[in-house]
Structures are given as C-alpha cells and as structure tokens.
Specification:
62% helix, mainly alpha, globular
Amino acid sequence: MAEYGMGGEASTFGDIYSYGILLLEMFIGKKPTDEIFNGSLSLHQFAKMALPERVMEIVDQRLRSVEAEALNECQTPTNAECKLEMCLISTFKVGVACSMISIKDRMAIGDATVEMLCIRNSYLGVGIHAKNN
C-alpha cells in the first residue's frame, strides 16, 4: 500500500485503504502492480470508472463463471446474472469507497463491515424466506 510503503504510520485509515484494494484485487483478478496500471491509471480508478455499467466487463471471469453456474442451479439464468451483477456492483462500490486517496473520503471500517454483510445476505438470500414463528 502506498501509505505504508512510503513510511507512513500504521493506522485504521491505512487498514481500510488496504481492505478496499484487497476487495478490488480479489474481484477484478488484478494486482495494483499489474502492467495495465501505469501512469495515471490505478486499480482504484479502473474500478471506479467501471461503476456501475461496466462491472461485469472487468470482474474476474473465473469468478463470474463459477458464481453464475452456482446461481443458475436455483434460479433462471437471467435472474442469476442480475443478482450476481447487483452484488458485484455493491462490492465494487465498497472497495472504491474504502480505497479513496483522501483519508477523509474513505468509508469507515464499521460501515464497510455492515455493507459487506448486507451484500452477503442479499446474495445468499438470508432473511428473505425466513419463517414466521
């Protein structure tokens, strides 16, 4: 991470930045040091420019195919693709919000945690079909 790599003190602000970059790395399948990120283009900017319309174009295709296949088993292909896309857009938004250059613009770690739990629950359908006792 740039802040730690340049001798910056460890802090929760740096941790949330790293968390955002890690999310983007995992879901895009590229490292911040990838050859396409040269000059002024960074992983953060790459993801931010894709939101929301082009997320499915930049997501790691291995992840996309595995998840779409799993969702297709229990839903129609159109619904599965839509559900996956909505969750990916939300995840990319968290990654981008956490990895903002300015510390004051970064998402708080508590907010990121809540948001990621909501994304997971939405994706898995947790609570949607809960039984009333």
